[in-house]
Each structure stands twice: as C-alpha cells, then as structure tokens.
Amino acid sequence: MIKELTKLANHLDRKGLTREADYLDAVVRKYASTSTYHMARDNSSSIWAQSRSGWYRYDTASKDWVLACTQDQLAADQCRDENGNSLLPKFTERTSTEAEIIEAGYQPLKK
C-alpha cells in the first residue's frame, strides 16, 4: 500500500497538485516508519517488535515474526491468557535499533 501511495503522490506532483501530494507524502512517512524493537526482561531473552499493526515475537524456529497481539486487542485489554496474565513480557528500558537487530542475527520486521 505504501508503494501505491508513493506512486499516487508522484502522479499528483506531475499534475501540479503539490499540496495534495505533500499530504500523501506525510501519510506515507507516518506509516512507513520503522518498527520499535524490545528485548524481554525474562530468561528467554526473546525479541519483540512493535509496529502499527501490533506486537510481534521473533520465533527462532521458523526465523520469522509471529503476531502475538494486535493493537485493537491491546486497546481492549484482550492480550491476556486464560489466567488473566499479559501475553506480553516486561521489557527492558532500552529499545534496539533495526541495525542492532540485524547484527544480532534477526530479520527485521516487515509487517
């Protein structure tokens, strides 16, 4: 979708509709921002990523990101197991950059 919005913004620029194109560019920048990565504070040392769609956990077996909780579920306080415990771990205070995630051997989140 980002790609299509960028193409539309370029088309609007070529037609002289710069104000409309600038608006679309702002939307693209807002939604194309990189994810925020977090290290869990538990003994699992799991890696988590927060994106606009929700929270993802890196599954080392499949070497891919698994959606753990959507933003809608989080807003409705539904990210809990059957005992009422949060599905999200407690995180360290420091976030990691995408470069640090790649250097540690993980693939960046592309969701």
Give the SSE layout.
Layout: H1 2-14, H2 18-31, E1 36-40, E2 47-50, E3 54-59, E4 64-70, H3 71-75, E5 91-96, H4 98-103
Antiparallel strand pairs: 1-2, 1-5, 2-3, 3-4
Helix pairs in contact: 1-2
Write up what this structure looks like.
The protein is an alpha+beta fold and 111 residues long. It contains four helices and five strands; from the N terminus they run ααββββαβα. The protein folds into two domains: 30 residues; 68 residues, no CATH class. The protein has a five-stranded antiparallel beta sheet with strand order 4-3-2-1-5. It is elongated, with a radius of gyration of 18 Å.
Concise description?
With 111 residues, this protein is of the alpha+beta class. The chain has helices at 2-14, 18-31, 71-75, 98-103; strands at 36-40, 47-50, 54-59, 64-70, 91-96. Strands 4-3-2-1-5 form a five-stranded antiparallel β-sheet.
